[in-house]
Amino acid sequence: MAPGFGSSALRSPKVWIGGAAVTDLLARLPEDVLVPLISLVGGAVGPASVAAATTWLLFAMVFYTFAPLVYTYLDWLPSEARGFRLLFAASAVSAGLLFEFAEGARLTAGIGALMIASAGAVLWYLSRVRGWSLFDPEGRGVEVLQLVSPHQDVSAELRADFAREGLVGVAGRAAYLAALGVLLVFPVFLAGVVSQLFVYAYPLPDLLFLGWAVVAAVSPRLTIGPSRGQVLDVEFDLERYLLDSLENASRSVQGLFLTTFVVLGAFIAAGYLFFAVTLGSQVAGPALALLGGPILGLGLDAWVTLWNLVGLVAMLGFAGGFFLWLWVRELQRLPHFLDVWEGRATAEGEPIARPAGFVALPLATVVASAAYAFGVPAAGISPVEYGFALCWPLLLGLGWWVANHSGESQPLTHENLWIAVGLYAETVSVWFLARTLTVATAGGSPSVWALFESANLPIVLGFITVFPTLLPYVSRYEDRDVKGRSYALVWFLLAVAGLAVLTARIATDPVRFQLRLLAGAAIFGGLALALVRRRGL
């Protein structure tokens, strides 16, 4: 037995006193501090299963703590109540785990099942525990739909629907409950996407949340006032900021789609960062091998190769960082645009500016990186590699200039289109880079034309982006109550169904399956809406 670990040492009073002191110290720590500490320690010294468990425990704490911020616009929702927070945290963690481990048809089925289960649980909680009368035309459930449709008298429409008997009345009530449930739990799935963003960034979220929790715990001792307000007002925590921004998803259909777009854009940006870190760990070995020999004996080609390896990692990391910065700024501009779109005045201050050039600079870094990937397989050092060696420091310097010259705010009139185009361009850039690396590493002499032999994904992505972008415009066009416009949304849904069927023919699974589901839902929704319009229901 090793010295100092014998039975006599274990019987020492000092050991028991020390152990009791450590246990008492841990017991006195607030859970906000204890959970990220456990996550960091578990990830550092424990196996992968322990790291995963402690990370998801941290996410559960984050979702539970910040749930009220997600529903800021729904003042009457009991988002501060413990039961509601537990439901939100459990559903959000389930969504994150679903995105982490499921794929293809299983992911689609899992999303549907979780949507139904979460909506049912929330509606049951509001009805049975909080005493909501869900079918009261003047009740709080109706107020949720009224917030999303401020230009319609939702209460009057539902009063007429609830008064109908037979199958039509049952269908009206079911549609109302489905709409209410989806609106209440849709932020759950966005929170799940946010969790995936931070899974790629471990241990950054643990450190950020730990810093937030320590400041929140210490600040009441330094200042006078209620600690809860100080906890929620700490502005530097990124998890808090992203979850707070999800409140825009519950204020209108436009807000729901645009918040989803921005969150997806931030998630893709995190993917770029993850790829840069992974690539950096892989090229570190060859780079150190080059430096392991006599440095003075390295030729120009070796130095160019080493310089370009560093540049490739830096460029991809810059693309991810710039995209993430861009989407954070769009989150700050989004409430101002939604105020203009909805005719409200909820946002404070002036809107922040979009980055100069928008997505042009990170796209340029991706194209330059792809060009370098094509140049590497050539024998010797190609002109492309020399060009990349000169290009990448200039692009990073230009990025620094853009970051310091994006002060003047732009008009908000078409911010939704900027967001949609930015997401599409970012997503296509991922496809382009992946396709480039595939062709460049396939062996033989890579051909530029081979990149576009399988260009079906950009077409599919274009359709998926355009559909939710145009839907709010069609809905607003129809709401103007001009003769001949009452069927605009019907024709739009039927057109979406037709385009989804055509797009599914060139898509691959699992997107093909999801497009077919969309086509079926659009046909059903279009025909049902046509029946409602026809009979004046």
Name the descriptors.
single chain; about 525 residues; mainly alpha; 20 helices; disordered N terminus; transmembrane helix
Account of the 3D structure:
By secondary structure, the protein is mainly α. It folds into three domains: 8-243, no CATH class; 256-452, no CATH class; 455-537. Helix content is 75%, strand content 0%. It is built from 20 helices and no strands. The model is unreliable at 1-35 and 221-236 (pLDDT under 50).
Précis, in short:
With 537 residues, the chain is mainly α.
Order of helices and strands: HHHHHHHHHHHHHHHHHHHH
Largest sheet descriptor: none
| Total beta strand runs | 0
Could you tell me the strand content as a percent range?
under 5%
The computed structural class is mainly alpha
Mean pLDDT: 79
N-to-C CA distance: 83 Å
How many DSSP H or I helices? 20
Portion of residues within helices: over 70%
Regions with pLDDT < 50 over 5+ consecutive residues? 1-35, 221-236
Number of domains: 3
Gyration radius over CA: 27 Å
Keywords: Membrane, Transmembrane, Transmembrane helix
Transmembrane segments: 50-71, 83-101, 107-126, 174-202, 255-276, 283-300, 306-328, 356-374, 386-404, 416-434, 454-474, 486-507, 513-532
